[in-house]
Specification:
285 residues, mainly alpha, two-stranded antiparallel sheet, 11 helices
Length: 285
């Protein structure tokens, strides 16, 4: 609900409040579910002395090396599930919705997918070389950035001198800076007609995503040394899923999906209000 959104915003502006008032971003029911699920997984893994080449095994190895508590393991696992998987699932859904609403873009993406000399799904190398798929993905991140804002702590004194302010803005160590990611992504000065889905903005011949990153106005995964740790995983799994679906199905927007770009006000990440409802029509019967 809105209380969790307020807690997230306050935590970004004043991190001390979260600790002082013991505010939570996730509801108790969600926390309890994941704590029980992951705790039981850890218990069973230890009970049968099972070793697998997976994330849980990596956590247990880290526990031995760094003397982590079980609660810390649960926290790391929740971070992986929520930050790494939930945001990717939302990005995939939003990209498919935008493609469904723009059938010409979906057709162009299909043609790029079909141009690959393979009956199988694209390889990792092919995914990276597909310029239009990359453009569609980045345009979706622009319209629906997983993080609506980012909070940063100033570590050394810095002075901003810009043309839109009469006096320089002086930042001191410890000051909190809120970066309005959604506002930057929808600023018509940088993205003409920002509400429209235009993958062409991010094609190589137009400068690609690097152009907007260098301008500091594309922060789909954040930026700098504290950008998203799961960037590469998110890129691969999201683009692979979009490619697999578009190649096999024609994606159409279901009438249950609310029109326009409407964000759910009760969630602190970008999520289309009312959910994303799609119809999938097989391309080959």
């Amino acid at each position: 609900n809105l209380a969790f959104v307020a807690a997230a915003a306050l935590g970004g502006l004043c991190p001390q409040l979260l600790e002082h008032y013991r505010l939570k971003i996730f509801p108790n029911a969600c926390e309890k579910f994941f704590t029980n699920l992951i705790g039981e997984s850890i218990r069973l893994r230890r009970l049968v002395h099972m070793e697998r080449n997976d994330f849980m095994n990596q956590l247990l190895e880290l526990q031995k090396q760094h003397s982590l508590t079980d609660q810390q393991l649960v926290s790391h696992a929740m971070t992986f599930l929520i930050d790494g998987l939930d945001t990717s699932a939302a990005t995939i859904a939003h990209c498919l919705l935008l493609l469904a609403r723009n059938p010409d873009c979906q057709q162009q993406l299909l043609e790029e997918l079909m141009s690959i000399d393979s009956s199988e799904l694209p390889t990792y190398e092919e995914l990276n070389e597909m310029s239009y798929l990359n453009a569609c993905f980045n345009e979706s991140l622009r319209i629906y950035p997983p993080g609506l804002w980012a909070a940063k702590i100033c570590t050394k004194e810095y002075t901003f001198e810009g043309c839109r302010q009469s006096t320089p803005l002086r930042m001191r160590p410890g000051d909190t800076v809120m970066i309005p990611i959604y506002g930057l992504h929808h600023d018509p000065e940088f993205y003409p007609e920002p509400s429209l889905f235009r993958p062409g903005r991010f094609l190589p011949e137009n400068g690609g995503v690097k152009k907007y990153r260098n301008m500091g106005v594309f922060l789909g995964f954040g930026d700098g040394p504290r950008q998203c740790l799961g960037l590469r995983l998110a890129l691969v799994q999201s683009k692979a899923a979009i490619a697999a679906i578009v190649k096999r199905f024609e994606v159409r927007a279901n009438p249950r999906t609310k029109p326009g770009i409407r964000l759910d006000p009760s969630i602190f990440v970008a999520m289309h209000e009312g959910g994303v409802w799609l119809d999938f029509v097989p391309r080959y019967q």
